[in-house]
Amino acid sequence: xxxxxxxxxxxxxxATGLLLSGAAHADxxxxxxxxxxxxxxxxxxxxxxxxxxxxxxxxxxxxxxxGKQLELVTVDDACEPKQGPVAANRIVNDKIHYVVGHVCSxxxxxxTEIYNNEGVLMVTPSATAPxxxxxxxxxxxxxxxxxxxxxGPAAAKFILEQxxxxxxxxxxxxxxxxxxxxxxxxxxxxxxxxxxxxxxGINAGDSDYSAVITKLKSTGVDFVYFGGYHPEMGLLLxxxxxxxxxxxxxxxxxxxxxxxxxxxxxxxxxxxLTLPADFSQDPDNQAIVKAFQDKKRDASGAxxxxxxxxTIAIAEGIKGAGADDPVKVAEYLHANSVKTPIGxxxxxxxxxxxxxxxxxxxxxxxxxxxxxxx
Length: 374
Prior knowledge:
It is built from 12 helices and 14 strands. The protein is of the alpha/beta class. It has 2 domains: 7-145 and 281-356, Rossmann fold; 149-270, Response regulator (Rossmann fold, 3-Layer(aba) Sandwich), CATH 3.40.50.2300. A 7-stranded mixed sheet has the order 7-6-8-9-10-13-14, with helices on both faces. The chain has a 5-stranded parallel sheet with strand order 2-1-3-4-5, with helices on both faces. α11 packs across α12. The longest helix has 20 residues, at 42-61. It is globular and about 65 Å long. Mean pLDDT is 92; it is low at 4-25. One of its GO terms (biological process) is amino acid transport. Residues 1-26 form the signal peptide. Belongs to the leucine-binding protein family.
């Protein structure tokens, strides 16, 4: 795949080559991690950082890449779409050529055009919204996670085959990620003839969702799907239980955060969610899992191993291209597959994985999760 760029990106690629041939030859290869390190979902940034840190430590211990060590630079976007371009411009201005992230879909969408135009390779391990890549023609944007239009149908298939509800409410947080996956679930349920009695957005960050819970009671739904993140899901679960609403709740991977237990209390028990398959249970990954454990990190979270895989993809791309040149690295990755803890991965023309598996889990009041078994 031959990558074409704007004049700005072409100039940057030339400047990069000149820089690498000169005094910067001995420098480390810097990789930025862009994600939420402040705000209400910092845990997701921490999950991704655990994966990137572990991968970089192992790569460097094995001799690095092209004789150079990898160096991580963290950049905060607070999971805010308006902060995505700010973080991206900082990375570009700092002449960092590779990015793991962004973590949240809204911030990712807002940053991608900058990276693509400036010839910076970005690999997101967690942004699942289709709009990250759809119809953009970006060559420098990749994922190591599936999309919401893979996750949504997987959730809907599970709901239809395992839960078999009569009337469903589909809620969302009015944001790119949450609303997108909620719409996907609603569409799949409606196609199958299941009644979606309520499709409504709530305001992220609010503390009182009693109005929408009253609607759940009045419509008589027997199942609720929520598209969004754990702070809102935790409040919905707790306040629904307080109002005597006894229905099953389900959400996407964004609700799978141990901090939801402190918000929802006992009401979180049995919450359903889709998550990437638990690759930490793969026998082939046990040495990597031990590397996490040795640093008191958890390899079994939603994004740790997809972040590890994103870092491995960048490193293997540099090796395969034979140069610290993000344009050549992107071309290499588009044309080849890479062995990672989440499998042998490859990408389609627009940078999405050719294959990815989501499983359904039950969440428990002690913060653990198990693959759903009816």
